[in-house]
Design a protein that fits this description.
This protein is of the alpha/beta class and 351 residues long. It folds into 2 domains: 136 residues, Glucose-6-phosphate isomerase like protein, domain 1 (Rossmann fold), CATH 3.40.50.10490; 147 residues, Glucose-6-phosphate isomerase like protein, domain 1 (Rossmann fold), CATH 3.40.50. It is built from 14 helices and 9 strands. The strands form 2 sheets. A 5-stranded parallel sheet has the order 2-1-3-4-5, with helices on both faces. Strand 8, helix 12 and strand 9 form a beta-alpha-beta unit. The longest helix is centred in the last third of the chain and has 23 residues. It is globular and about 55 Å long. The mean pLDDT is 93.
C-alpha cells in the first residue's frame, strides 16, 4: 500500500504540483496586489452586465467570483466558456477575458469580438496573444506570473479580477474578504499539508477512500457549484481519473433516479458533498432525504467550507479538493502535472 505520510518523494511529483497547490493563499494575495497596482483604462461606468470569458483552469476563477459577489450586484454576471459571445454584447457591456497563457484560441477570439462590439475589456493573463491584443487596443491588462499549469494559477487569476472590479466600482469592496480568505487558507494549510500524518489530515484520508473509485461530487446548494466543478476537474487533470459533479436541489429532480443503476455500477462510486455552511433548513432536509435513498454501500463524505465570508468558504473547499486530488494522484502512482490528452487534442485541432 502506498503511503501518504512522511516526506513526499520528488519522483512522485517532479513538477511540484502539491507545493503549487499549497501556494493558493500567497497567490491570492499577490493577485490582489497586482490588480490594485495595475494601470487601468478609464472607468467604464456601471455596466448593464458583466461577461467573463475563459476555459478550463482559467474559467474557474470567474465562477468563484460570480458566486461570491454576484448576489450583491445590481446587474447580471455571465461566464462564457466559448469563442461565441452573447449577441447583447456592446458598449454597455463589461467583458473580462481570463486566459492564463494568453493563448487560448476561444478566449482570444471572444476578446476580439468584444472589442469589435465596442465593449470595454479587462484582460487577466501572463502574456501571449491576449495581452498583445488588449495592449494594442488600449484596454486594461493585468499581467500575472507565468510558468504554471493554468489550473494551478487560480489565485493569480481571481485576485486581479476582484481588485480591478472593485477599483472600477463595479463590485462592492472586497479587500477584507480577500484577506480573510487568504488567512483561512493559511490556517488550513498546516493540517492538510504533506507534513501532517494521514490520521490527522482530512485531505489524505479522503484521497485514501477515493482510491480505486469514481468520485461523484455534489454541491449542497447552488452557491457552491463552482467548488464542485473544480473538484471534478482537478480529479480529471491531477488524479487522471473519471469524476462527476452535480448540485442540489437540481440533482434531486433527476440524478437521484440514476442511483438506481445496477449494483455493479454503483459499487464503483464514492460520493462527496460540499457545504458552504450557509445552507438553510430546506437544503439540509433535502440532503438528509437524499441520503436515505442513496444506494447501500456507497460511501458519502461531507466537506464543509471554512471562514466568515462566502469567498473564504468557497476557496477553502477548493483548497481541500485540490490537495485531495494531488494525494489521490500519489496513491494512483501518476504524476499530477502532465495533461497529455489535452495537449494531444489541441495539437489535432490545430492540424
Amino acid at each position: 500500500m502506498r503511503t501518504l505520510d512522511g516526506v513526499i518523494e520528488r519522483a512522485a511529483d517532479p513538477s511540484g504540483m502539491l507545493e503549487i497547490a499549497m501556494s493558493l493563499p500567497r497567490q491570492l494575495r499577490e493577485g490582489w496586489r497586482l490588480g490594485r497596482e495595475a494601470d487601468l483604462a478609464p472607468r467604464p461606468g456601471r455596466p448593464a452586465h458583466l461577461v467573463i470569458v475563459g476555459l478550463g483552469g482559467s474559467a474557474i476563477g470567474a465562477d468563484l467570483l460570480a458566486a461570491a459577489v454576484g448576489a450583491r450586484l445590481p446587474f447580471p454576471i455571465a461566464v462564457v466558456r466559448d469563442a461565441r459571445l452573447p449577441t447583447y454584447i456592446g458598449p454597455q457591456s463589461l467583458v473580462v477575458a481570463s486566459s492564463y497563457s494568453g493563448e487560448t484560441d476561444e478566449t482570444v477570439e471572444a476578446a476580439e469580438a468584444a472589442l469589435d462590439a465596442k465593449a470595454p475589456l479587462l484582460a487577466v493573463t501572463s502574456g501571449g496573444r491576449l495581452a498583445a491584443l488588449a495592449e494594442q487596443r488600449r484596454q486594461t491588462v493585468v499581467l500575472v506570473p507565468g510558468g504554471l499549469p493554468p489550473r494551478a494559477a487560480l489565485g493569480y487569476l481571481l485576485g486581479p479580477m476582484l481588485a480591478v472590479l472593485e477599483r472600477w466600482d463595479v463590485c462592492p469592496p472586497c479587500a477584507a474578504d480577500v484577506e480573510e480568505a487568504a488567512r483561512t487558507l493559511d490556517a488550513l494549510s498546516g493540517g492538510l499539508g504533506p507534513a501532517s500524518s494521514e490520521d490527522h489530515n482530512a485531505a489524505k484520508r479522503l484521497a485514501r477512500r477515493l482510491d480505486g473509485r469514481i468520485p461523484v461530487v455534489y454541491a449542497a446548494s447552488p452557491e457552491v457549484e463552482p467548488a464542485a466543478r473544480r473538484w471534478k476537474s482537478q480529479f480529471n487533470e491531477n488524479s487522471k481519473t473519471v469524476a462527476a459533479w452535480h448540485a442540489f436541489p437540481e440533482a434531486a429532480h433527476n440524478e437521484v433516479v440514476g442511483w438506481g443503476a445496477a449494483p455493479e455500477i454503483t459499487a464503483l462510486l464514492e460520493m462527496v458533498v460540499l457545504f458552504s455552511g450557509g445552507e438553510g433548513d430546506r437544503a439540509r432536509r433535502l440532503l438528509a432525504a437524499a441520503r436515505e435513498v442513496m444506494p447501500r454501500g456507497v460511501g458519502v463524505h461531507e466537506v464543509a467550507g471554512c471562514g466568515d465570508s462566502l469567498l473564504a468558504r468557497l476557496l477553502s473547499l477548493v483548497f481541500i479538493g485540490d490537495l485531495t486530488s494531488v494525494y489521490l494522484a500519489y496513491l494512483r502512482g501518476v504524476d499530477p502535472t502532465p495533461i497529455e490528452a489535452i495537449t494531444a487534442l489541441k495539437r489535432r485541432m490545430r492540424g
